[in-house]
Write a structure and sequence with these properties.
- This protein is an alpha/beta fold.
- The protein has one domain: Vaccinia Virus protein VP39 (Rossmann fold), CATH 3.40.50.
- The chain contains 13 helices and ten strands.
- Strands 3, 4, 5, 6, 7, 8, 9 and 10 form an eight-stranded mixed β-sheet that branches.
- Helix 4 links the parallel strand 4 and strand 5.
- Helix 2 packs parallel to helix 3 and helix 9 runs antiparallel to helix 13.
- The chain is globular, with a radius of gyration of 18 Å.
- About 5% of the residues have low confidence.
Length: about 325
Amino acid sequence: MDISAAQYLQLAAPPERLRENLAIEVTEHSFLPSIDDILGDWVATIATPAFKLIRQKEGAKSAFCSIGAGVGLDALAAIEILDSIDIGITDVHVDVVAAAVANIRANLRDPERITLNAGSGDLLQPLAAFRPQYDLIYENLPNVPIDAADLAAARASSGHTPPRTENIPELLQKNLLALHYVALTQAKDFLRPGGSVLSLIGGRIPLAVFQEMGRFAGYRAEIFTYGWKIQSDPDAMISGHLAQQQNGLGPYRFYRAERLAEVFARVSLADSGKHAFEIEQRLTPDQLDPQQALAAHQRGETIGHTVVALRSFPA
C-alpha cells in the first residue's frame, strides 16, 4: 500500500521526518486505512488535525504512545507533526505489531533518531517492562464488541472481546466505553508529569458521558476537538449498534453526512471543543437512531457520526 505523506497528513510542504511516499505493509489482521476515502479515515481526518492543534498550542511532544497502533500511521503522524522521538506502540495481534514496527522504521528519513518500544497484548500492558513515560498517549479503540472466535480469525483489531474483568461503571458499559475507560486507568502509570491521554471516540452518545468517563477514571477530561466523519463499513457498524441498542444499550445516534458537513462548516477546529455542546444541541433535531440510519443508508444516503477528541489529564 503506497501513500503520499503530504496528501495523507495534509502538509503544506514535503515532510521533514518521513519519506515523501510511504510504503505500508499490512497483514490479515490489520485494520486498513481508508486511503481511497480520506473522509472515512480516522488518522488522516481526526487524529492528524488534533496533533497539529496540540503542536500549535503546546509545541512538540517528544514521547508518544499509540494504543491499538494498526499499521503505524498514527505513530508516523506523531513523528512528523509532534516531532516525537520516543515512540511506544501496542496492538492485539503479534503480526500487526510486527508490521507496524517495520512500517515506522521503513518510512523514516532517519530511523536512528527514533527509539521504538512495541508489544502485542492488552492495551498498555505490553509496554510495562520498558517502564516508559509519555507526554501523549493516543488511543482510537473500538466500541463495538466482537466474539472471541472472530477476534482470533478475522481482521479484528477494530473489535474487542467483552466482558472486561475490571470494575467498570454501568454508565460506561451501557455506552460501549469500557475499553476506553480501562485504557485511561492503565495510562496513569505511563504518563510524564503534565502528560495527557488523547482519546478519539465516535460520538454516537451524549458528550456529557465522555466527560463522566474521565471523572470516573480520575482525570480532568475536556472535549479537545469535536468533528465528524463518514461512517466506515456502514452495513456492519450501524447494524452492530442497532443490535446493541436492541439489547438495552445506548441509545445511539447517527446523522446524514450532508447535515454534519453543513453544521461543522460554521466552526473552526480550534474552536470546536469549546463549542461542542452548542453544536450537539444544534444537531439534536437531525439525529437518526440506528434503525433509521440503516434504512437511510440502504436508500443510498451517506451516513456519518460525530467524533470526539477527548483530552484527559490526571486529576
